[in-house]
Amino acid sequence: MAEGIRTLARELAEVTRLVEADDFGSTLDRFAARIVRTIPGCDAATITVRSATAVETVAGGKDLGFDPLTPGPVVEAVTFAEPRRLEDVTTDQRWPAFGGHLINGGFRGCLALPLVTHGSDTAVLTLFSRETGQFDELAYDVVLLLTLNAGVAFDNASLYHDSHELVAQLRTALQTRSVVGRAQGLLMRHFDCDSEQAFTALKRASQNSNTKLRDLAPLVVEAHESGDFDAELAKLALNPVGEPRS
Description:
Layout: H1 2-13, H2 24-38, E1 44-50, E2 55-59, H3 73-80, E3 84-86, H4 96-104, E4 109-115, E5 122-129, H5 137-147, H6 157-191, H7 195-209, H8 213-226, H9 229-236
Antiparallel strand pairs: 1-2, 1-5, 3-4, 4-5
Helix pairs in contact: 1-6, 2-6, 6-7, 6-8, 8-9
């Protein structure tokens, strides 16, 4: 088991190189895909985030064929920051609506594991299996690697370092996604434009100013909070659709 954990950690640690760019959406999707390739018995994986305003699936949802946010283990895990396990949907009737969708999607079980995040947002990694009884101690080893809970001992210094880097990079991707979403929302409201136009404007301003998107988006949010929004937009040449609304 110890060797299996070390191998798993090294495999997951490779995700750290995926988040150097600002394409955090693809980063999270690729992270979920790597989980599927790595965890025995896992046929699909999603990442779900709960913010102050919404609960949404930010990675892996397109592979399911159903809405994982139907009231059930995923929503409970992200709401209460507690793990939820559904070993066999045909015998466990705690979440009948979710169970029906799970079966229709061709799955028989799932395991929802909270991830460590900063701030008030919570995130959950959910593993789905087409067979029953697939998620045992190995799946829990994954969450230990991802959360680095107090008391988890690693007998290999590079393993600890790689696992720590993975957590830090995943946090960065989630946090970047959150602040960029806030900046998008501010531009959408100010310019009466859609989400794609707002994101395109942010990317263009990022390229023109030679500023990473994860660094530029907080400037927009902070300027709005400090009352310097218009000045910051002018400074960054941020104007998706022409003149702002009066």
